[in-house]
Each structure stands twice: as structure tokens, then as C-alpha cells.
Amino acid sequence: MKILHTLHWVQFAGTEKVCVDLCNEMSKNHDVFLLTNNQIKPYINKKVNLVEVDFQNNRYNPFFLYKIAKIIDDINPDIIHCHNTKELEIIYNTRIFTKRKIPIVATKHTLRAKKRFKKADLCVAILEDTKEILKEGSIIIKNGMAYKEPKKLQRDNKFYIISASRLSPVKGNQIIIEALSMVNFDFKFDIFGQGEQKNELQNLINSLNLQDKITLQSFSDNLQDHLFSCDVQIIASIFEPYGLTAIDGIYYSPLLLSTKTGICAQILPDELIFQTDPKSLANKLNDIYTNYNEYKEIFAKIKATKDKFSVEAMANNYLNAYENLIKDMK
Questions:
Q1: Residue 173's beta-bridge partner residues?
Q2: Which UniProt keywords apply (predicted)?
Q3: What pLDDT, in 10s, does the model give residues 3-13?
Q4: Under DSSP, is residue 209 helix (H, G, I), strand (E, B) or coil?
Q5: What is the DSSP code (8-state) at residue 290?
């Protein structure tokens, strides 16, 4: 099958990772093309055919639409898979120039309502909540992730805690920092991520005199090694449409705690859930520190289901959806 993926590049975050992992996996047995910004090049393998396109400011430019139509005609894909609303509308509008009508699949990666998803021939939701805002006939394909073999890192004896998320208020890192000011054990806490809240979080860390225990580490290319070497990973998001970092936890972390949001609301038992306030998390962490092995055993049952979240499973589900849509549109 010849598959064309399109991605409106902003930064390498959740949507971009899903797209990259799909392209890399599908390219093992299919002819895969990706239309996006050249900045994605370090993340894709050599079998993925990268076509550099800037979707940012060209949605209604007829010359740009004609250019994209020519690219599509030259590739002549069996299916087009769009990962954002902006380029979905562009791809839909190119149909006035393309030689044939190619089926369009669009994945809804967020919970923000977007009427433009009606332009897709098949809409894919990542969770049940997402499906509710899409048009009738949409399907659910839950996100997966490519597994990387982790390595154990050297560390001291302090209880090691990790959060991996964008530095944004909705991700709740401020909740973790405030909670750690209340715990009754020694610890080290690393936050892996970037974002607009960096200075605010650093000021909070300083005001609580935790600068020797908490570090803003930016992004890491070997996050799996840090998760594999930690004692507990925390997701404190106030809201998540899915939460890919939870799959990181299932793959690599010995223990994962989360608020009740996104995929964690479906897969984690109550023992591993905390409320979105610092006191709730502090109490949970104190109990975990005292009864660590018991909590690890609880999470071990979740880790045993990791194959459900493989990139292979996700890719196979999409390939089946592509084939069914192509048959239906003939």
C-alpha cells in the first residue's frame, strides 16, 4: 500500500510522536510518504519519504493548493492520513486540482471541537471522549508507541521521582512541586520538558527552597533510561486527551501515579490515582515510600498489558481501517 501522512509541524510533542511512530512502523512493509516540516527529519527512519511542506499560512492560497495537488498526483497514494485540522482542510481543498479523489483519514488527537474533521472520509478518535465530538461513523484507535530498550543509569540512594511533560499549567507540575514540599522523606525530582511555565516553576522551586532537590531538565533523547532508573513517575495533568507519557510509564517505569484523566483514567486502579491537589499527592507519596513494594506489585499488573500499547498494534489497526475505507469508496 502507498500511504501519505500529512503533519502540521509545531514542535515534537504527542501528535508528532504518534505520526512519526506510525510512519516508521508502516514503512517496514509499505511505501510511506510524509508531508511536513524538515525539522522532523531526525525522528524518521530512512525508509520514510519526507516531502518538505509548510502548512502554516497557506490554507486558502490557490497556488499552494495546486502545488500540493501536484505533489499528491506525483505520489499517487492509496490513502492520505492527516494528523491536524489545518492540513486536513488543505488536503481536502486540493481535490479540485487532483486527478482522482483519494480517501482521507483524519485522527483527532485533542478534545477541542473542530468542524473541519467532517471533511475527512474517516475520522479516528484516540479515546471514547474524543469519539463523542466527531461525526457519525468515526472509529476509535488508541495510541501506541515504539519501544526502545532502556539502560539502567547510575544514581544515588535518594527516592527518585520523574515527571515528563510540557511545562504548562494544565500538566500540573506545580502540584507535584508543592506536594514534595510536604513529604516526610528525602528525594530527587527531575522534570523533563519545555514550555511557557519554566520560569514560573523555577520560581516556585526556589520559593520552597527545593532547588537542591528539584531540577528542570528540559527534553531528553533517552527518557526511557531515566524512567527505567527512577522509583516513581508522576502524571499530574489537570486534563489529558490521551496522555502518551502513560505508555512510557507502562513500558519503562517501575511505578506510575496519575490524576484521573486521559488513558490513565481507564487503565490505572484507584490505588495509583490522586486528586489534582498537592495534599492528596503528598499523602499518596508518603504512603508509597513506606509501602513501595506493595504499590509496585499493583502496577506490575498494568505493565503486563504493555503489548496492547505497541506501535505494531496501533499500525495494524490503522492499516485495517485504510483497507476498509478504500474498499468502501471504490
A1: none
A2: Transferase
A3: 999 998 777 77
A4: coil
A5: H
